[in-house]
Here is the input.
Amino acid sequence: MALNSENQADIKLYNKKYFSEQYVDNSSSAIIAIDLNEHVIIYNQSAEDLMGIPSGEVLGRPFAELLERKTGTQDSILLNTLRLGRPYSHIEAVVETPSGMMNVMAYTTLVKDENDNIIGGILTIRDITSQKQLEEKIFKAEKFSVIGELAAGIAHEVRNPLTAVNGFLQLLGKKFNHDKQLMQYINIMLGEISRINHIICEFLLLARPTVPVKRKANIHEVLDEILLLTEGEFLIKNINLVRLYDKNCPLVNIDSDQIKQVFLNLVSNAVAAMPRGGQLSVFTRYDSAESTIHLYFEDTGTGIDQAKLELIFDPFYTTKEDGTGLGLTVSYRIIENHGGKIEVLSTPGKGSTFIVTLPVG
Ligand SMILES: Nc1ncnc2c1ncn2[C@@H]1O[C@H](COP(=O)(O)OP(=O)(O)OP(=O)(O)O)[C@@H](O)[C@H]1O
Ligand SMILES: [Mg+2]
Here is the structure.
């Protein structure tokens, strides 16, 4: 049977013969089939949604035309399938759809008639965006757990000798407190030890995230406490603080100490991003439908490049000379342990907004 895309009867027959029409129509995968002339003869609803081009403009037209409109190229696994007589499987790609970027998995099949002659090709494109996101989550979780195990081991080994050094240094300080020069050195050493201790503490938080001890708290009071702490720095650094709190925010069940640590890190990151001053806006919004509270930390700082946005939550990723790169990693963990999430929007040269979402109750 030779297929002819100009002949509607042929298309119908083709459909009936090789597909369950219902399957094609209702499939969540985009299905596009072409005949030997490389004209489109099947183009289901999901294909329409994916391409953003209605079937009326595609059916019966050359597939290359659709490609040209959609991608600006003529390179296609479907055309290759037909031309080379070889199907493709598990081709992953990221495509732009009317509803945003989508991760897809594509494969092609050759359609043959009873005599084994090739009469067409089919392209199936499956949306694997949520699967990809899940994979990424698992990958992140695994990375954290490996680091966690390592961290716990190292922290113990390092902490004990450090405590001894710290103790003896303090003793030395007492004994030689008349020697100004020596005292200066000792204080530097004590300062550095406390820095190492700080890193270890953050490390341990990653390793064995302490189960949050949650109590009902007013999120605005928690915020204000942190903003009061950093007020002096805002003044020195010429940073204007704007607060806009949603009065409808109910109490939230949180471990205030842990949440404070998150806020402090977000605020100090914002301050660090505005070396020549700027504005930090902190606002809250209660979403009663979702039963969540959103907290926005918006700065007018340097912003973060698109490519680096993926890295900032990674352990030890830092662009600062004295940074540990654990601040956001720990913050991410804490918010995750509270059943919430942290997101970031950023425009290089304009600023960044970190959005913390916390469930109420
Ligand atoms: N508001 C922001 N504006 C611009 N860049 C930011 C902002 N917040 C974070 N970053 C980038 O993300 C990186 C990682 O941040 P993170 O808080 O994890 O570590 P850090 O601040 O470098 O060190 P520390 O462990 O001391 O917090 C920063 O070094 C910076 O490059
Ligand atoms: Mg930080």
